[in-house]
Each structure stands twice: as structure tokens, then as C-alpha cells.
Amino acid sequence: MTTEQTLPICIAGQWRLGRGERYASYYPATGEAVAWLNAASLEDVEETVLGAHQAFLHSGWAQRKPHERAGVLYRIAQLIREQSEELAQLQRQDNGKPIGETRNLVASAAGTFQFFAAACETLEETITPSRGDFVTMSVYEPMGVVAAITPWNSPIASEAQKVAPALAAGNAVVIKPAEITPLLALQLARICEEAGLPKGMISVLPGKGSVLGDALTQHPLVKRVSFTGGTRTGKHIAHIAADKMMPVSLELGGKSPTIVLDDADLDHAVAGVLYGIFSSSGEACIAGSRLFVARSLYEPFMQRLCAAAATIRVGNPEDETTQMGPLISAAHRESVERYVALGLSEGGRLRLGGERLRGGDYDKGFFFPPTVFEGLSNDRQVCQEEIFGPVLVAMPFDDETDLVKQANDSIYALAAGIWSRDYKRAWTLGRKIQAGTVWINTYKQFSISTPFGGWRDSGLGREKGRLGILQYMEQKSLYWGMNEQPLAWASEHREVAP
Ligand code: NAD
Predict the structure, then answer these.
(1) Alpha helices for 59-156 (secondary structure H)
(2) Residue 196: what pLDDT?
């Protein structure tokens, strides 16, 4: 691909230029354009949804036997693996993550397709206990056209998490990737088609979410939206969905607490806390951004943590040894900087970082160092709002009752981490923390076989897990009459009638 070429987008199986504005995807490490494309227009949204609907009705995908659909999903996984290095490099350029991390995301996408292929061909429809002269069954049907709206922080992994179960279920999928990271979704659609998915069953509409995502969500032929992104956008989508009586799943923001108890293994805790907040430059919904440390070990722990954080290699995402790449954009770095200024104005002390990195290659991209605040209480704005950057706020705690209160004092409830050698103590605490995922003596580990989602403002519904496929299906109950005689009521009625 040459940079100057304008990339086509995928409109219900037709690869052609979008009819919206021309724009570029920029490499956050240098600010240079990686690729140019035309955004989709509202007419493109209409054409896509109508085309996807036709493909759903007539391509035969929904009618294929589950093991046949699974065969295509296995092939998608295989093609992702065959192209893994190109995909990882493309993703590095599209969103600036270090190459080691983008390789993991690509591998995870392949694993997701493989997993949902298996879920598809092993999904059981059940015969339920009969309570009359009938046999009762519970079966599942695809929904039609479903929309997958994704953010910029983990392209391909986010998309796979939605596309794989939606296709496995027999639906047509329209992806609305984040405007600034469209490249992986487009490549994924090409792979799906190459693997044998009928044309029109996958589409990709790059461009502004407030225009295209909104139009997709409102469209009467879109029967489900699976959304990952910010809480404000998620609530907006939920309102539209309520009006349409449309099911949605919402994977939203977080402000996750990480708790280091006084009996923690400190080597593990330091490594886990660092990874939890600073990997992906903190641009992760599950970032462990609020750190609670038992007061008795607060100072020695903070010394170790900050010494280790100061050695994190921030820099060129192409370098295999880089741990943190740039932030996604100049605007996002400015937003992180505003939060640092806010933390200082709220009385916080910077124990590490806090200022953009300068000099050499740092001047070209949007780099920001690991940053650690202390001296703030949990009710401060920087402890309550999602920064989505490499900014950790550390707080000592005295007793566990108060700790639980503080950890749960957030509109978010996506994830939490607990570090303790005492598994009973960690279990008890883990049950009291309100969060969709609690990691005990580990952090930010993921498994496609384990459901994921948030409580409260962190979201609605669950993704992943073997039954994740059911989110993309309508359940239907079937009653098969086995009576020897006509239904009694009607028969008696007939007998008494003149
Ligand atoms: P965002 O909400 O701005 O955008 C997410 C997606 O929604 C993009 O594709 C965007 O174009 C689209 N969109 C924007 N406005 C829309 C509208 N009115 N209607 C329909 N679609 C619209 O979020 P972002 O800045 O791209 O991503 C960062 C956010 O995502 C953070 O809050 C982060 O916590 C969250 N996130 C959550 C998870 C999770 O699984 N819980 C995972 C990753 C990111």
C-alpha cells in the first residue's frame, strides 16, 4: 500500500471509496500519515445496512449448518495467523502500540475466531422438561444485521471479540471502527471474505462515530449493537436502543482499584501494578489506575514501584524491547496533561513523571512517561475520572472496611486487583469488591473463555465465554403437541355447543 493511495472501504461486500471526507490514519510515534481513506457517508451507511440485510436473507450463511459456519471461522483464524506479522506491523502504525503488544493482540484475535468456531459447532439447543402433552425445546436464531462499534485502543482484538460470535451466530456484521484506527478492521474484512464468508456478511464503515455510529444504531434494520468505548457514548447508544427495544452490550470505561495488602509478595505486586497501569501506556479500560497500599508497607512499596517505573522503556514501537509507545494522538496527550495539572491543583504530589517526554524521537510523537501521583484522597477528580493514560494515583489505607468503601466508591466497576499471600483473605476481599473482573495475584490477564464486562457505568452485558455467542441470537421456544386427542377445552366446548 502506498500512503497516497486512497483506501477503499467495505460496503456490504463492495470495496469502493467512501463518499465522506478524505482523511488519514496517523502513526502516533511520528505523526506521519500511514494511509488515506474516505470516510463513509450517511448514504454509505444506508447502502451498507440494506446490502447486509439482503446478504443475511439470501447469502445462505444463516442457513449453513453450525459446523459449516465454524469451518469458515477456523479458516479466518488460520489466515490471521498466516498474516500475523503484517497485521501486527499495520496495527503498530495505526495506533502506535509497541510491536510486542500488537503481536499479542493479533494472536488473541486468531484465538477468538478459533474459540467461537468451536462454540458455534458445539452449541447445544435443549429439550426442556415437559410439563404437559408436548415436547418443549429451546432453540436459537440469528438476529439479522448487527453493528460492532469499537474504540481505538485495541483494534483487531476488540473487533474479533464482536465479529467472531456475531458471524458464528449467523448474522451479518457492520463494523464501525474508531475513526482514527480503521486499518485493522478493513484488513479483517478482507480476511473474512478470503476465508469464504459470503459477500455482504461483513462491512466496515470508517469515519465519525457521532455521525455514522449514531446512524447505524438508529437504523431499523440493525437488530443489535455491540459497543466498546466511552461511558458517555455508551449511554447515548443505550437511549437509542431503549427507543428501538434493541438489545445492546456496552463495554465502557473504568477506574480500577489495585490493592496491595500487607502480606503481599512484593516482587509480584510491583510487577503486577506496573503492568496493570503502564502497559498500553495506560490506554486500557481495565488499567489499574487507583492504587491502595497497606500503610505499613506504603513507603518501601512506593520506592520499589517508582524505581521500577522509572526504568520502563518508552519509545519507538518498532523496537522489540519497547514497553510503552506513544499516546494515540496529540489531543489525547493534551487531555492527559490536563489531568496532571488538575491533580496538582487538587493538592497531589508527583512522585514520578508528569511532563511530556522531549528530545530526539520524542519530539515527533505523542510520548508521555509513567506518572505517579500521591497525596490525593479517593474523592478527588483525578481519582474518580478515567484518564486513559499512564497516570497512577497511589493512596495508603489503614483498615480493610474503609479500603472496601474507597475501592467501591466510583461510578465505574470494571476490574480490580488484589495482592496478598493469604488466599482466604484475598477471597473474602475479592467478593466484597464490586467489579466485573477481579484479579488475585495477577492483573490484566485475559481469556476468551471467561466472560468479561462491567458493572455500573462500566457497562452492560458480557462478552467472551462459550455462551457469548448467545448474545447475538434470539432464543425461541418450540412446543410439539403429542396429544392423542384434540385439546380438551376446545373439544368440550364443541360438545356443549348446540
Ligand atoms: P468513544 O466512545 O469516543 O468511541 C468508541 C466508538 O464509538 C468509536 O468507534 C466512535 O467512533 C464511536 N462513537 C462515537 N460517538 C458515537 C455515537 N454518538 N454513536 C455511536 N457511535 C459513536 O471511545 P474511544 O475514545 O474510542 O475509546 C476510549 C474509551 O473506550 C475509554 O473510555 C475506554 O475505557 C473504553 N474502552 C472500554 C473497553 C471495555 O471493554 N470496557 C475496552 C476498551 C476501551
Answers:
(1) 66-82, 84-95, 99-122
(2) 98
Cite the active site residues. Answer: 251, 285
Q: How far apart are the C-alpha atoms of 239 and 214, rounded to whole Å?
A: 11
285 pocket-lining for ligand 1 (C-beta < 6 Å): yes
What is the best residue among 285, 411, 460 to mutate for testing ligand 1's pocket, by most ligand atoms within 8 Å of CB? Answer: 285
Task: Say how far apart CA 479 and CA 132 lie, in whole Å.
Answer: 10
> What type of residue sits at position 34?
V
pTM over the 0.85 mark: yes
Q: Which atom of ligand 1 is nearest to the CA of 234?
A: 2
Please give the DSSP secondary-structure letter assigned to residue 209.
Answer: I
- The tens digit of pLDDT for each residue in 90-144 reads 999 999 999 999 999 999 999 999 999 999 999 999 999 999 999 999 999 999 9
Q: Output phi, psi for 226, to 5 deg.
A: -110, 115
Q: Where in the chain is the domain with CATH 3.40.309.10?
A: 257-440
Please give the CATH number for the structural domain made up of 6-252+458-478: 3.40.605.10
Nearest-angstrom CA–CA distance, 157 and 97? 13
Among 14-23, 203-212, 353-362, 489-498, the range scoring the smallest mean pLDDT is 489-498
Residues 269-301: tens digit of each pLDDT: 999 999 999 999 999 999 999 999 999 999 999
Q: Give ranges for CATH 3.40.605.10 in the chain.
A: 6-252+458-478
Q: Which fold has domain 257-440?
A: Aldehyde Dehydrogenase; Chain A, domain 2 (3.40.309)
One-letter amino acid of 459: G
pLDDT of residue 4: 76
CB distance 176 to ligand 1 below 6 Å: yes
